[in-house]
Specification:
Length: about 325
């Protein structure tokens, strides 16, 4: 019979605590990133019909969002109508999603009292409400985080930018045409000991080409603020992008898409992006040369056959027919 010693028990307890700690960092209590209360929106008065409708919309968001990862709803009529939207990061569990949206909904109401439009971002989710239909609001307006400027710089900035941009571009193309949760994660080794981890995501109320446009703008802003730093994030109304030198997402908790799990991009692919088109072009050019030479040779042979036939017609030879029916050309 196996007996567990006190040292074995301590080891098991240590491993259990460590595994719980790792899980908590990925799906546990969320962190508030930024709140934006619009100054251009129509303000509402306290205890008005708009405020009551806003409370109803914010209360509706958590339950459905926790099941699907995204929710868009509205309530009210005419000038008191309120539109609400919630999005959870594609790698979090349903319970963590619900907890985040509930927390964000309470905070956005308190932070932006009397504002007719506002959006709040957390580590794992975002909540947005407005007095107007948000499906028609696809104008990009990226938001930086104060912590981006505090990130340390990398040593080889040119090399780092090339690999990070390659990774983010590929993830954007993958997310834009992902029919599930419009979310993609991935990583790439840019040195023997260092790896870039990244994620991109957009809300599900915009079309793929609008998604790509939003993500490209966000990546451009990300390059402007953080191309030489060890981490960065850009937030917007419809899309978010982020990269770090550590794995900040959970590859085993994607909400609804088996295809959006973290992908590892090979460093060699960066070179292939340039090498493959050149190789293909060389093959195409070579094939064209061989085809043209073969065609020219064939045309020459046909011309020769026609010339020989004309010569024979111009100088006909005599033909002798034997009794057995055989033909012989006279010399």
């Amino acid at each position: 019979m196996f007996r567990m010693t006190s040292s074995d028990a301590r080891l098991v307890m240590f491993l259990f605590i460590m595994s719980f700690t790792v899980l908590s960092t990925q799906t546990g209590p969320d962190v508030h990133l930024k709140t934006f209360c619009s100054n251009n929106a129509l303000n509402y008065t306290r205890n008005s019909a708009f405020e009551n409708n806003l409370k109803i919309v914010l209360k509706r968001l958590p339950s459905i969002t926790s099941l699907t990862g995204f929710n868009y709803t509205f309530f009210g009529e005419a000038s008191a109508e309120v539109y609400g939207q919630a999005l959870c990061r594609g790698d979090v569990s349903s319970s963590a999603c619900r907890t985040c949206v509930e927390k964000a909904s309470k905070q956005i109401f308190n932070d932006c009292i009397s504002r007719g439009e506002a959006i709040i971002w957390y580590e794992l989710c975002q909540v947005h409400y407005s007095f107007q239909n948000m499906t028609s609001l696809s104008v990009y307006a990226g938001k930086y985080l104060d912590r981006d400027s505090k990130e340390k710089s990398v040593s080889d900035q040119v090399h780092f930018l090339k690999f990070s941009k390659y990774l983010m571009t590929n993830l954007s193309n993958e997310a834009a045409f992902n029919p599930f949760n419009m979310f993609a994660t991935g990583k790439i080794n840019f040195s023997r000991s260092k790896t870039i981890f990244a994620h991109v995501q957009y809300t599900r109320d915009i079309r793929p080409h609008e998604c790509l446009k939003c993500l490209k703008s966000a990546i451009t802003d990300l390059e402007g603020c953080c191309s030489s730093r060890k981490g960065g994030m850009v937030l917007s109304r419809n899309c978010n992008v982020r990269f770090e030198l550590y794995q900040f997402y959970n590859v085993s908790k994607h909400l609804s898409s088996p295809t959006s799990r973290g992908r590892k991009w090979k460093a060699g692919k960066v070179a292939c992006v340039v090498f493959i088109p050149i190789t293909v072009l060389a093959i195409v050019i070579g094939s064209c040369i061989v085809f043209l030479r073969h065609k020219r040779r064939k045309e020459t042979d046909v011309e020769r056959s026609h010339l020989a036939l004309l010569q024979e017609l111009a100088n006909p030879r005599g033909v002798t027919i034997t009794e057995e029916g055989q033909f012989f050309y006279d010399a």
